[in-house]
Amino acid sequence: MPTRNDMLLLTGFVAVVLAAPFLFEPIGAGYPDLLQKFAIFGIFAIGFNILFGLTGYLSFGHAAFLGVGSYTAVWTFKLLSMNPLPAIVLATLFGGLFAALIGFISLRRTGIYFSILTLAFAQMSYNLAYSVLTPITNGETGLQLSQGDPRVLDIAFGRDYGAVLPSSDLFGLEMTGYPGFYFCGAMLIVCFYIALRIFRSPFGMMLRAVKSNQNRMNYTGLNTRPYALTAFIISGMYAGLAGGLLAVTDPLAGAERMQWTASGEVVLMTILGGSGTLLGPVIGAAVIKYFENIFSAFNKSMLGDIFSFLPESLQSGAVSVASLFVGEGWHLTLGAMFVLIVIFLPGGLMEGIRRIGALARRKKPGGGASASTPAE
Amino acid sequence: MASILTVQNVNKRFGGLKALDNVNLEIEAGTVHAIIGPNGAGKSTLLNCFIGRLEPDTGTVIFDGVSLLGIKPHEINQVGVSRVFQTPEVFGNLTLRDNVMIPAFAKRDGSFRINAWKGVKRETDIEAKAMAMLENVGLARKADEIAGQLSRGDKRRLELAMCLVQEPKLLLLDEPTAGMARAETNTTIDLLKKIAETGITMVVIEHDMHVVFSLADRISVLAQGTVIAEDLPERIKGNPKVQEAYLGGAHL
Fold this sequence. Notes:
A: mainly alpha, two-stranded antiparallel ribbon, two-stranded antiparallel sheet, 18 helices, B: alpha/beta, Rossmann fold, 6-stranded mixed sheet, 10 strands
């Protein structure tokens, strides 16, 4: 059983996920399509953090596993069933298998060489998906459902979607809108719980030891390689699941999901939120996906409205400066935010939260800092 | 007494340099055996042959019936050899408690085990063992501090606790007091004496004669890659070969 604090953390997490549509309403994020993305990329980042946050191995190729998960899920829809459960189970499995293969080779090196190897493998997968693997990936068009798909399990259970293109459904409940979000949310909770158990376990302690001092670990009788490889495979499974869920909410898989920018994004999410912390990656994923959606939706006329209080001459200037940071230019906002956080909060947003917490405690008389002085 | 570590006819050549020249050693169980010698005598090369870093050109190193040659560091530890480094090697960003629990897990669970579901907090026997060992070396009240912030002497104590919690059959120490101030050296010697009294076998590689003569039951002197003398400490000082090796043959 987890400790009391962990139970509180878990309860709080479940409450936030369940109440997300209401909680995120005031900031304009209370709609299912965006909340789904929070959940899916939260899973992706939690998994990435098990590798990067605990063992310190910085992979630049995790989007490959996300892509493998998506392709696996769409193929499962085509061949077996539109039910999301087999799709995500197989996506998780294939993500893990692919990670075992790439991890086995890449983990022969550490540091920057490891990062370059993973990047190379991911770019290779991306390019293969566009070229020789076209029969599996359908190349640039992307892998899609079609009316002629066999769907053997659906047929066997007498489920016929007729002439329309089906969407994924969990025993009749369509995986779009809020049901889709709650399905992803449930997965997020399960993934968070598993990560919590790993973080608090002796296995998690060994992974932190890998990050801390591999030489000491070897001379302590521990074989570092299988520990790092297991962490790599687990994080690959998380990525596969996230890719599978992307396909569940929108049954389409394209190779651009495997591109290096997608691998870089999960690194940003984890560092922005706070690597090595439990909540950090989820917060980082939500913040980045929120900014991507909100800032990229801004356009010049909206900015004009915002700056309408200014005199005409200043208004056009303000609008043209601000427009650099929104719409297509939202990456500039993200970049600036990332630079500020890495400089002022190296531990990510979680460090910010912790500092605010410590400040609040110090203000209370008799609490926190003053009580921590030993009495001896 | 039975010998626990037997080194026979070990030779190691680096290009034209003969680093180890037919080295023979017998380490008796339950003793503190010091290996001394002037700079470049081959002490570190010899140690590296015990711990899987170097493979000798010829010869055998047998520990407790197992050859230590050609096996990996973690396997050497698992047969019962723990080592302390010249610069203390600890898990710098973990707490002292975690630092000692990790080797305790390695002893119980072997070199690799996925124990990912049971909380560390529920491993009460391992934690109790780690805390008892921290108590032994005088670091129990710092159990929740981060190991990287300790002083060099405290890191050495922690490293010893990490080795001892595994109840090794042999403890290798490479210059255990290197880089320490006199006071720190003395407290470390006291601790090592206390550890030696428990009957554990130790091999100490050391420059500092003060350390060697306060600890060792037996001393081997290495010079130019060969063992030139092996005797009790009080007799080593008067050995003419040893004097020659240390003073470069000049008669004073």
